[in-house]
Amino acid sequence: MSFIHGDGLDDVIITGENGTIDGQGDVWWNMWRLGTLQFTRPNLVELMNSRRIIISNVIFKDSPFWNIHPVYCSNVVIRNVTILAPSDSPNTDGIDPDSSSYVCIEDSYISTGDDLVAVKSGWDEYGIAYGRPSSDITIRRVTGSSPFAGIAVGSETSGGVENVLVENINLYNTGIGIHLKTNMGRGGVINNITLSDVYMENVRKGIKIAGDVGDHPDGKFNPNALPVVKDVTIKNVWGEKVLQPGSIRGLRNAPFTGICLSNISLNGANGPRNLPWQCSDVSGAAVQVSPWPCSELTSTHQTGACSSSF
Known about the structure:
Blueprint: E1 4-7, E2 10-22, H1 26-34, E3 45-48, E4 51-61, E5 68-71, E6 74-79, E7 82-84, E8 101-111, E9 117-119, H2 124-130, E10 134-153, E11 161-181, E12 189-210, E13 228-249, E14 256-266, E15 278-280, E16 282-290, E17 297-299
């Protein structure tokens, strides 16, 4: 059971004068590392089937698992929170809106051992059967660091993710700056995702959109349930000390379409030289991108996938 748990609630406020909720997660992390856990690890905060939620002005520290997990919720505001965990702590995601709608995450600092913010919507055949997407989500003015992703969509996206706006993000010492991730067996549609005004520094990979990420809950998933990724715009991104600018790899039977990269500059760790982009099974456009991305993103002017990004 999560430390703070609620199901079927209406009008929830969790707030304080930056007081700390300490999950004392190292006990759980050590059991996970040793393989001695008999149960799943709890979140610090998990609210289910609830609406009209405000979480603000609290420090969340050392969660055993994900920190804040609204699932099947609507009208959620998470602002002015600080979330902390060691960089080697397993699965300590910061904020994971899951099959939830009308969510705003803003003005927060997150430094953990896993994705800072990850939008999710269910896992393989179970998420497909439930069929509830995450939609209408705004993430803005978030700063942080992580050995994994700064801003992520996925990898559990079987209910679909749509209408996500991410803006004014600052990332430092991060594995992947922007990561959209799914897999065969997931199904679901990832659609209308916009990320803009992102600064990243000392990052292993700037942008990654991938169709081969994440494991499966069991062997009952349908390998023919292919995800759809379309209409993703990433613009106004600046990076320093970025080892590789990015990779975009769709699925052979489900190429990613409508990918727009616009006004992006990702400088390498030792000056302007970067490892090259890697792409496959993707189509879209690129405008003012440095280093120049893959040939699959062929546009050099304001047309096609990038026509609405200016």
